[in-house]
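Hi P.,

Sorry for the delay on this. The queue was packed all week, but I finally got your sequence through. Input first:
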Amino acid sequence: MEKISVGILGATGMVGQRYIKLLDNHPWFEVTYVAASPRSAGKLYKDAVASRWLIGSDIPQGVANLTVQDANDASLALGKCKFVFSALEMGKEEIKALEEAYAAEGIPVVSNASANRWTDDVPMLIPEINSAHLDIIKKQQAHHGWDKGFIAVKPNCSLQTYMMPLYALIRAGYPVKRMIVTTLQAVSGAGYPGVSSFDMIDNIVPYIGGEEEKTERECLKILGTVSGEKIQNATAPVVSSTCTRVPVIDGHTATVSLEFDLPEDKKPSLEEIERVWTEFSSVPQELKLPSAPDHAIVVRHEENRPQPRRDRETEKGMACVIGRLRKCNVFDVKFVALSHNTKRGAALGGILNAELLKAKGFFDNL
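Then the structure:
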């Protein structure tokens, strides 16, 4: 099969580098275009990142000698790639305008950035949960007068930690009324150079700007439905969150308490909840997408798991790992969940979104 040529916007940043590494030898996609800020434009990629390649292995040979282009000029990508992954690091309004500029040029944008997450006609995808939101893309194109271009985004990295187990229960007929979440987020989620070592060593920071709002609101769009010209948000569950930064390199952890919107005699047992999670499978598994985990949710029974160092690479970093499922004295049940924030929560999650788009035919006419 001939591979689809792809570009990376923000290719010199931490998430951009992760995209480049993860796409090396991908069965469907090949990086043929890299773009970044004007200060990197005109340099060979290997020179642009010479002192700040962070991934821990050599730069893929197919990318090392590509010339970095100015990401601010969408027309430069024409003829060089079929679609782009957006890992841009700039102001939200700038990112929003730039992603729309690429889409207007006929270049689909699969974005890791937050700028378009709350645009009414842009799907915010976790493929196991809301692949049906792809239906909004034709309406998005009609709204803007775009022929081939469109924008699809992924949600905030911390949501990947608990959204699949939440959705699995809802899908199984156990609606959730209220949820309390405390996230313990890795320092890599802050990008590079990220949080000062003086702030993180021997410390926990109990605040991450904007994270609690994302945690409490984005899940409602993901659980929503396509209605008319926009995605209509769900009305439940009501979420209360506290987001913290902890001295872990990779792997976001969350402690979660759930209250079901059911009569007492209809609420699931712990055994039933574990069965739902263990048997959970969805569209990416049915389509056998290359980056999809065989088991999207993995339940562990040790009393001290999951742990970031031990469990973040489960299913190649694409699984939600759950432990400590037990009764809650305030709500109904509580548990601890873990996901890999720079794989499932960032670049590899974006790649899975692109694989879903390809499998559903959205790249057929590029």
